[in-house]
Amino acid sequence: MTSPLCVISVTLMLLVVLLPDCHATGLRAHKPAAVPKHHRPKFKSGPWMRAKATFYEGGSGSFGGACGYEDVVKQGYGLSTAALSTALFNNGQACGACYELKCVNDPKWCKPGNPSLIVTGTNLCPPNYNLPNDNGGWCNPPQEHFDIAKPVFEQIAGCTAGIVPVQYRRVPCQKQGGIRFTITGNPYFNLVLVSNVGGAGDVVSVQVKGSKKVKWTAMKRNWGQKWQTDAMLVGESLTFRVRASDGRSSTSWHVAPKNWQFGQTFEGKNFK
Q1: Contact call for residues 123 and 67 (beta carbons, < 8 A)
Q2: pLDDT tens for residues 104-147?
Q3: What is the rounded distance in angstroms from the CA atom of residue 126 to the CA atom of residue 140?
Q4: In what order do the strands lie in the sheet with 226-229?
Q5: The pairing of beta strand 220-223 with beta strand 49-56
Q6: CATH number of the domain at 180-267, please?
Q7: Domain 49-171 has CATH 3.40.190.10
Q8: Which residue from 116, 138, 120 is spatially nearest to 129, judged by alpha carbons?
Q9: CA-CA distance, 134 to 132, in Å (whole number)?
């Protein structure tokens, strides 16, 4: 009669022999596949909507006033810019957003073929409550209106037109290089201009982190795309995290070295 110990011994030997075959035939238990990290989709063009457009005179140093862009050409926007009516400007949150415009339904003044013009919102077209909405008060709420820089307005309509009907939609901003951070102020009041933002283009929040004492700190919108904090940033390497209106974030690690100076501009990581 076979002893129980012998049976157990034989069983163990069989398991040792069979286990490699189980591995070879795929019977081995597998670890669950790693779940990919969630990434928000890239900003996409929005629906076409109707508005009106005019043009205004100026230059690279005046087309970005209400957004804090001191020179729209140097800061990556070129002259393809527009001042937005109050309804579109949204208290400065729309600064940096990009729009595709077409002059429509006006054969007399629209360019043949209704060519497109891509502009960035860099300024405010202020309301004029002394004039009616349909006669001079073009930018009065709730009207959606674009006051386009004159050098590019002529790409879609003749400047003698005065005012033209347009179709417009939000489009992704295509920028060269990275997001730019221009630091001004003093050791007790830091003001950072965020410019040349790709993707959605408009910034809804900015955080800053130092390399020593300063932990992640939310900055407050001062005006346009200028963001402020009273945190003591001097002497620390700085990292900025920018969140756009579509919910995507871009972090520029240690973009400013610890010996940065007020008045300098640093270029970080842009949205793809």
Answers
A1: yes
A2: 999 999 999 999 999 999 999 999 999 999 899 999 999 999 99
A3: 7
A4: 220-223, 226-229, 189-195, 180-186, 265-267
A5: unpaired
A6: 2.60.40.760
A7: no
A8: 138
A9: 5
